[in-house]
Amino acid sequence: MGKEELQWRHIDLNLLVAFSYLYRHRSVSIAAEHACVSQSAMSHSLARLRQLLGDALFERKGHQMCPTERAHQIAPKISVLLDTVSGQILQSEPFSPSHYQGVCRIGLTDYAELIFAPAIYDAIRAQAPHAQISLINVNRSNYEQISEQEKLDIIIGSMPLLADGFSSQHLYTEQHVCLTDLSALDSSIFSACGQLSLQSFAKVEHALVSPDGKLTTQIDKTLSEHGLSRQVTVASRNFLTVQTLLKGRALIAIVPRKMAVLATEQAGLSMLEPPIAVTDFDIAMIWPEVKTQDDKSRWLRSVLNKVLV
Predict the structure, then answer these.
(1) What mean pLDDT, rounded, does the chain reach?
(2) Fewest CB within a 10 Å sphere: which of 27, 111, 225, 226?
(3) What is the pTM of this model?
(4) Helices marked H in 128-268 — which ranges?
């Protein structure tokens, strides 16, 4: 018997499925629950995986089973293999949105979820009335990991650096504006035509939407080049928190235009053009390359492309 034949005798596809659950949930008990097997069965599968691959694969650190470097290396390959088996080998019928009863898993940054969640829901349900929709928060630093853990179909947001193994489609370029409650500001800071000067902009206290928790941005560097500085008195990762803070307070915030439009409609705030150059940013739709030809993924991309631009 040849070496390759001997190796194949020891390979069980269920072991790869077990690995996928363990990698996604970082817990033997939770992986077992989602895989609908007993905890002892999952532990036995892990033991067989370790023997088969010659690596610990998952090591206990606190309350989590953390993947080893070897596990991180093989996880994308196993994901591709399982997606191929389920999507191209076992799937017997073409994908039909009107009959689909599964879950559409959409990764969204805070910005994208606030702006697009209702439109995404309506667009998917209009064509797939039996589908469920799971909106999962991601950001530019964790979307690769979250995509693997949650088996995301699509990711939407601003991701300047595209990770290996992902494809993307540019949707549009977003601009920034100033958002404030005009009734709370001293009217003397505005010019006769209602413009906000750079000096007045620097003097007003600022609220900051800060996804990474930092209290400075490129705007502070630009102001310093003009010999000016501003005082950021509050920052939050959540735009709705900043929107609430702006109401009735002498604060101003630089926010994406689409966010500002919502705030003017919902909270009675006002938009102003910033008296300083603020870098635009691109919004893209991202998906794992392995799903490029997947019927469900192609349908989702088509549906969302029509409502997100």
Answers:
(1) 89
(2) 225
(3) 0.70
(4) 143-150, 198-203, 218-225, 239-246, 257-266
